[in-house]
Amino acid sequence: MSGRAAIVTGAASGIGRAIATDLAANGARVLFADVNVEEGERVAADFSTGIFQRADAAKQSDCDALVARAIRDLGGVDILVNNAGLQHVAPVEAFPVETWERLVRVMLFGAFYLTRAALPHMYAKGWGRIVNIASVHGLVASPYKSAYVAAKHGLVGFTKAVALEAAEKGVTVNAICPSYVRTPLVEKQIADQAKVHGISEDAVIRDIMLAPAALKRLLEPSEVAAYVRFLCSDDAGGITGATQVIDAGWTAR
């Protein structure tokens, strides 16, 4: 990753933090982006090549500002990782409209805003890597997660469309679809699912989250980060428009 400049959204915690710190540890100049200023600044400060900027992925102005900051302070945008996300669990008929729209705007609109702003700079260099952190829920569905499932399915489709547009200009675009990863977001989902189903949190993990998986464990953020780093390397130059699954065997059934 030496010499590359990267933007990673949702970089203050969880998967985004693992990705941003992994890229920085391997030589990339990284713009850590998140709404959590305190934690984002702390994590970015651990790396001489890391900088932080507060950004709400649901706002085009914030996304445009991220790209402008990367160009000004990092020398460009070679890598874009659209990772920012959130979750809410509720039946469709009880799903708050503002919350539904918020989830879709952060995870789908945000990826569009950033990709739209970053692509011209990648095209000018003739090289770029865009990695969208989707989910196994971008391929299959679960009840009570209509907004998240819709956003992630949309993100997978968006990935394929942009990959076809960008291929001849040296830019690859891929999506990673992990199953449940040990992050604060998943921990909140466990608690939410326990309330919805009226069962214990241990039962949620055992009987709901890991029921479809062949490997009965949560993934670690570092496993996703390693996959991102590979997709951003020259060795992955022939991979584009793909949905790379890390799902502990979930979709093998």
How does this model look, in words?
- Helix 1 (14-25) crosses helix 8, helix 3 runs parallel beside helix 4 (97-125) and helix 6 (184-197) packs across helix 7.
- The protein is of the alpha/beta class and 253 residues long.
- It is built from 8 helices and 7 strands.
- The radius of gyration is 17 Å and the shape is globular.
- It has helices at 14-25, 37-44, 60-74, 97-125, 146-166, 184-197, 201-209, 221-231, and strands spanning 5-9, 29-34, 50-54, 79-82, 128-133, 171-178, 243-246.
- The protein has a single domain (5-179, 218-246), classed as NAD(P)-binding Rossmann-like Domain (Rossmann fold, 3-Layer(aba) Sandwich).
Keywords:
single chain; 253 residues; alpha/beta; Rossmann fold
Sheet with the most strands: spatial strand order:
3-2-1-4-5-6-7
Distance between the termini: 36 Å
CATH class: Alpha Beta
What do we call the CATH homologous superfamily? NAD(P)-binding Rossmann-like Domain
pLDDT < 50 runs, ≥5 residues: none
Shape: globular
Write down the Rg. Answer: 17 Å
Strand residues, percent: 15-25%
Distinct helical segment count: 8
Mean pLDDT: 95
What's the order of the H and E elements? Answer: EHEHEHEHEHEHHHE
CATH architecture: 3-Layer(aba) Sandwich
Estimate nothing, just give the exact number of structural domains.
1
